[in-house]
Amino acid sequence: MMIFSDARTCVLILLAAFTRHVTANADKIIFTGPEPITYPLASPSLADLNLDVIGPASLSIRTSLSRIFHNDSDPELRGKPFGRASWFILDDLTPGQRYELRVCWAAIVSLTVAWSAKL
pLDDT tens, 19-61? Predict the structure, then answer.
């Protein structure tokens, strides 16, 4: 008597039995592309900031961001932001087009992420 009707079902059950739980963290922000802004050619320029650029030519960036974790139980740190700010330039966006920006990281520690987006 065969318990499983086909080999695929048997393989899926075996994979499920030996699979470990893997987690990751991801945050995203959905926005529409703003109207282009022209900046005067004065120094310092945005290029002088040496920020990573995300746009149609480079859709993703793999980088290492510094992480700082604390809790509000320490009176000296109470009310201070969790983590450090990281800046990137979003370039060559189409005005009115919907975009989704995702930040993903390994779930080695749980943390709270606060987004602040100004367009």
Answer: 665 566 777 889 999 998 887 777 777 788 888 888 888 888 8
Single-letter amino acid code for the residue at 24: A
Residue 99: other Cβ atoms inside 10 A: 13
CA dist., res. 57 & res. 14, Å (int)? 42
- How many residues in total does the chain contain? 119
Contact assessment for residue 105 and residue 25, using Cβ atoms and an 8 Å cutoff: yes
Cα distances from 59 to residues 2, 11, 14, 19, 111, in angstroms, run: 49, 36, 37, 31, 26
pTM over 0.85: no
Asked if residue 81 has a cis previous peptide bond (ω within 30° of 0), the answer is no
Per the structure, the count of domains in the chain is 1
Q: Is residue 7, in this structure, part of any structural domain at all?
A: no
The answer to whether residue 70 scores a pLDDT higher than 50 is: yes
Q: Residue 85: which domain range?
A: 22-106
